[in-house]
Write a structure and sequence with these properties.
The protein folds into two domains: 216 residues, Quinone Oxidoreductase, Chain A, domain 1, CATH 3.90.180.10; 168 residues, 3-Layer(aba) Sandwich (Rossmann fold). Helix 5 packs across helix 13 and helix 9 runs antiparallel to helix 10. It is α/β, with parallel strands linked by helices. The strands form three sheets. Strands 3, 4, 5, 6, 7, 14 and 15 form a seven-stranded mixed sheet that branches. Strands 10-9-8-11-12-13 form a six-stranded parallel sheet, with helices on both faces. It starts with a strand and ends in a 10-residue tail after the last strand. This is Glutathione-dependent formaldehyde dehydrogenase. Its cofactor is Zn(2+). Pfam families: ADH_N, ADH_zinc_N.
């Protein structure tokens, strides 16, 4: 089969690799019909090379058609259309029972002290082959695999794999609808959905992003948009009686470009031999924290900061005096996908499209054009907000 493989810093290529096979009774095999590039994939692309091996199959936002199931998978059968959560969880351990499948005790990667294994996401999370491929083996399909309808386009359902429940969890953690004003920092794919969900739940929502195309997309959905910087922060304060919003979601994470030194440190770690770089990143890594610090500064006293953007630094400094003085609540965590999907399924199937899932994808490319998609997404060129790869589409030859 053909699959997107990691080959080095800012290098991916589509290669022919062995077809996956059933390994356990709880597995399923699917033929992938759509698979998206996620902002978290850019962390592998840019920063987390020491935890990757050349040839790793990446990607964690797939859906498709069931080809084969193991003997213990009885809720789906060959021919069913399904969405695959990016978290690999058993559904029956103590953590899954508490609604925390991202902390699944069956698939925790204890070697690295991390939570549940993830599709296509480095040694830190199990090094499980990912979903940017023609076919995919789905571990623990007996719990995770979600059967969906056959009449609506893939893009109505695809984002149930990751970014839609991630955004829903972030808004839930932010305390909406109880909180009446919400600011979302970063209007990439997750930030777009956070803003729309907040608005759907009744909040007044502000969105901050330096990219005009992203602001324009959010504005179409009733979001009050502002550019990044002191003027934007000051304007939001003015519009919230000088207090700041009740809650702020940081939908940027370690992609934030606010710290030159942290960016240099990330790049240097990425060039060290893996055996040296891994402990540096695990025990001394420092993130670029501009977005998080902006969230802490902007939110009103007694408010809530919710993190949906991923941070990877083990030694990132936090302004604890400021946080304590402002009496803030801080919530975060890997998304518990299956805890939210039953709530979200009716919304993505609603003909009114209340969360605007039909207005998110800006680029659709054949799987063989994955390298182009990664470059567009990373650089935010050509108005790129979200890229979906189609393993079933023929590659278009480049023009001479």
């Amino acid at each position: 089969m053909r699959a997107v493989t990691w080959q080095g810093r800012e290098q991916v290529s589509v290669e022919t690799v062995p077809d996956p096979i059933l390994d356990r009774p709880t597995d399923a095999l699917i033929r992938v019909t759509s698979t998206a590039i996620c902002g978290s994939d850019l962390h592998l692309y840019e920063v987390l090379g020491p935890f990757m091996t050349a040839g790793d199959i990446i990607g964690h936002e797939p859906m498709g058609i069931v080809e084969e199931v193991g003997s213990e998978v009885d809720h789906v059968r060959p021919g069913d259309r399904v969405v695959v959560p990016f978290t690999i969880s058993c559904g029956s351990c103590a953590m899954c029972g508490q609604g925390l499948p991202s902390q699944c005790e069956t698939t925790q990667v204890t070697e690295h002290g991390t939570g549940a294994a993830l599709l296509g996401y480095s040694k830190l999370y199990g090094q499980v082959p990912g979903g940017q491929a023609e076919y995919l083996r789905v571990p623990h399909a007996d719990y995770g695999l979600m059967k969906v309808g056959t009449e609506l386009p893939d893009e109505n359902y695809l984002f149930l794999s990751d970014i839609l429940p991630t955004a829903w969890q972030a808004v839930h953690y932010a305390g909406v609808p109880g909180h009446r004003t919400l600011t979302v920092i970063g209007l990439g794919p997750v930030g777009q959905l956070c803003a729309r969900i907040g608005r759907h739940l009744g909040a007044r929502v502000f969105g901050i992003d330096p990219v005009p195309e992203r602001r324009a997309m959010a504005e179409r959905h009733g979001i009050e948009v502002l550019d990044l910087g002191e003027d934007g922060v000051g304007e939001i304060r003015e519009r919230t009686q000088g207090r700041g919003p009740d809650a702020v979601i940081d939908a940027v994470g370690m992609e934030a470009r606010g710290s030159v030194m942290a960016g240099v440190a990330q790049r240097i770690a990425g060039t060290l031999p893996d055996a040296v770089a891994r402990p540096v990143m695990e025990r001394a890594g420092v993130d670029r924290l501009a977005a998080l610090h902006t969230a802490i500064d902007l939110v009103r006293r007694g408010g809530t900061v919710s993190l949906s953007g991923v941070y990877g630094g083990a030694a990132s400094p936090m302004p604890l005096l400021r946080m304590f003085d402002k009496q803030l609540q801080l919530r975060m965590g890997q998304c518990n996908v299956r805890a939210w999907t039953d709530t979200l399924l009716p919304l993505v199937e609603d003909p009114e499209d209340p969360l605007g899932v039909a207005d998110l994808v800006t680029h659709r490319l054949p799987l063989d054009e994955a390298a182009v998609g990664y470059d567009l997404f990373q650089r935010k060129h050509d108005g790129c907000v979200k890229v979906v790869l189609d393993p079933t589409a023929p590659s278009v030859p480049a023009m001479a």
